[in-house]
Write a structure and sequence with these properties.
The chain has 218 residues and is an alpha/beta fold. The protein is built from 9 helices and 8 strands. Helix 2 links the parallel strand 1 and strand 2. The longest helix has 18 residues. The chain starts with 9 loop residues before the first helix and ends with a helix. It binds pyridoxal-5'-phosphate (PLP). The site of pyridoxal-5'-phosphate (PLP) has 13 residues, from strand 8 and helix 9. Pyridoxal-5'-phosphate binds next to strand 8 and helix 9.
């Protein structure tokens, strides 16, 4: 994991946020609304205050225990999504704190949801659109059955395409995810990180997950 970022400056975050919002507005299809989720795995708990001051309200965390600790440290301040590798034994701990688990991708996670979920629980299914070996995510051809077996409401799809320094290389993966979401009438498309969020928005993302582009000086 990358080093933690400390000493975040509110003006820096505000400037980054303004830049990102402009890029998103220019890239979004007419009438499209795109949520900005701040990925906070790089931030220690005490730094989250700066995000709140800058007007960031939607946060994503990768580790269950960090999500619980951070959510408890700022009661009611943020909306939380879980965006990390989902261990089935952590599902119950995470559920009370989150809007969505975005990374449901295994049969054991489905079983844990069947045991621990509330009627209101909503999730996204993570899809391995590029078919990368060893990467989390349901294979596209297995998605229909997976959604049918999911014991809670699936509201969208999420993907993490291959790392690249060329955003255009992500475009076909984002387009593939959008096609899958349309086929299953799912409204949420969580795709695009700092490397490729502009392309993701052009391809119909409803949510981008940003870490470095919000937190680090550009
Ligand atoms: C860290 C992370 C992000 C943000 O990545 P950046 O490149 O810092 O924007 C998005 N999604 C997931 C699942 C992450 O773990």
């Amino acid at each position: 994991m990358a080093e933690l970022i400390r000493g975040l400056r509110p003006q820096q975050v505000e400037a980054n946020l303004e830049h990102v919002r402009k890029e998103i507005a220019a890239a979004a299809p007419a009438g499209g609304h795109v949520e900005i989720l701040a990925a906070v795995k790089y931030l220690p708990c005490e730094e989250l205050e700066v995000l709140a001051q800058a007007g960031v309200t939607l946060l994503g965390e990768n580790r269950a225990q960090d999500l619980v600790a951070k959510a408890q440290a700022y009661p009611g301040r943020f909306t939380w999504d879980f965006i990390g590798h989902l261990q089935s034994r952590k599902v119950a701990a995470v559920l009370p704190h989150v809007r969505y688990i975005q990374t449901v991708a295994s049969e054991s996670a489905l079983a844990a949801l069947a045991r621990g979920a509330e009627p209101s629980t909503q999730v996204l299914v993570q899809v391995n659109v590029a078919g990368e070996l060893g990467k989390s995510g349901v294979a596209p051809e297995e998605l229909t059955g997976f959604i049918e077996r999911c014991p809670v409401r699936v509201v969208g799809l999420m993907t993490m395409p291959p790392l690249t320094s060329h955003p255009e290389e992500s475009r076909r993966h984002f387009a593939a995810l959008r096609t899958l979401a349309e086929r299953h009438s799912l409204r949420e498309l969580s795709m695009g990180t700092s490397q490729d969020y502009v392309v993701a928005v052009q391809e119909g993302a409803t949510m981008v997950r940003l870490g470095t582009s919000l937190l680090v000086a550009s």
